Amino acid sequence: MLKLRRLRAPCHTRSGLLAVCFAALALTTGSTLAAASQNNAKPAVKAAAKSAPKPPPFDFAVLGNTPFGNAEVPVVRSVLTNIGDTQAAFVVHAGNIKDVAESCRDELITQRLSLLASSPKPLIYVPGANDWADCQRASEGSYNPVERLDFLRDHAFNDDALLGPGPVGYAQFDITRQSDMARFRQYHENVRWFYRGVVFVGLNLPGNNNNYRSAGGRNGEYEDRVIATRVWLQHATAYAQQKDAIGIVIVAQADPEFEPARSGGLGGIFSERSGRRGIDGYKDFRAQLLRLANRFKGPILLIDSGKTMRHTQPLRDAHGAPVKSFTQLSSYGSPTANRWVRVRVDPRTPQLFRFESVTLPPNSAAAANAQRGSGTAPAAVVTPNPEPGRTSASLPGVTPYAAPYSALYPPSGLATGASSVSSVSSDPNQGVTPIGPARAPNTATHPAAHSR
C-alpha cells in the first residue's frame, strides 16, 4: 500500500501541473487573440472612418463694413436679394452696420438691423466697433459704448433671435449662444453653430484695438471679454473634435493684425507692438488661434470685415513658419457695397474653402448708384480667388481713446483671475441648449441712456 501511494503521488502531481499548464496556456492564448483582435479592429475603425460619406458641399455668403450711410442701404438690400437667388445656405455679416460719421442712436441701429432681417437667407451678424465700441465719439452721439452693446444684445441677439428667416427650409442648424452658460450670461453675441461638418463661431472682437483703453484704470469690459473669448474658442475646439468636424470658421469684425515673427519663434504672436499703439489688444486672441491650430488639424478660416476681398495665411508657428491650415479672409465693405464674397465649402477637394467675388449685375439700379458713389468701374460678376494680400480693415483717422475705462463704466463683476478660467468645465455643451427658429429683431426703442 505504501508503494502504491508513493507511485500515485507523482502521478497526481503531474496531472495537477498539466492542468495548471493547460489553464495558463489557455489564458495566454486568449489574451493574445484578444490583443490581436483589438489591433486588427483599429485599422478597421480607421478604414471605416475614411470610407464614411463626406458631407455634401455648400456655399455661404460674407458681408461686412456695410451699409455706411443711407445711400448704401438700397445697395445692401439688392445684395441680399442677389444672395437670395443663389445656392448660399446662409449669410454672415462680420460687423459694422454704420459709418463712424453716423449716430449710434436707437432708431438708426434698429433700421439697420431691420435691413439685415430682410435677408431672404438666414443671416448671422456679429457686432463691430462702429456699432458699439466707438459710439463714445462725438460724431457718433457721445454714447456709453457698453450701453450701446447692451442695446444690441437686446435687439440683435436676444434669446433665439436670428436675422432673416428661420432655418427651416434653408440652413438646417441651431444657434448656440455663450449666454446659455451661467458664467457668461451677458455674451449673447458670441454664437456657435454646426453645418454640414463645419463648426462656425461668431465673436465680439471690435476693431478699435479690441476696445482696450490706453489710459490708466481697470479695463473691465476688455478684460472680461478676453476671458469669454478664450473660453468660447476652447469650447469650440472641443466641440469640433467631438463632432469630427472637417473645418472651423471664425467670424469677427476686427483684423487681429498678424505680423511676421521678427526673429523666429513666437515674436509676432506675442508682440506687444508698443511702438504702434501701446498694449496690443489682440495678443491673447492670436495666441488662442495658434493653440486652436495646434489642437485641430483641419482647415481653419478667420473672417473679418474689410474694404476689399483679401485672403492670406498670416498665422505662424513656434518656428516662424506659416500655419498652412489657417486662412484669413477679409470681406468687401464700403465703398464697394455692391459686392459680396461667396465661400464654397467642398469636402471632396483638397482645398476645403474657396472664395469668389460676386458683384451685382451691371444693369442693377443699386449697383449703378454704388459705382457712381464710389467712383469704381463695373467689375465681373464672379471673380474666383483674387490675389492674396492684406489691407487693414481699420478706418483712417480712427485712434484709440485715452479716457480711463474706470471713469466711464461700472465694473462688471466677472472674475478675471486664472482660477476663473480653469474652473470652467471643458465640456463645450455645459449649460448649452439649442436655439429654435428665428424672430425679427425688436424694433422698440429704449429710453435714452446718455447725455448730449
UniProtKB/TrEMBL annotation:
Residues spanning the membrane: none
Span of the signal peptide = 1-34
InterPro entries in the cross-refs: Metallo-depent_PP-like
- What is the protein name for this chain? Transmembrane protein
Q: Which keywords annotate this record?
A: Signal
Region of interest (Disordered), ranges: 364-395, 415-452
Does this entry carry the keyword Coiled coil?
Answer: no
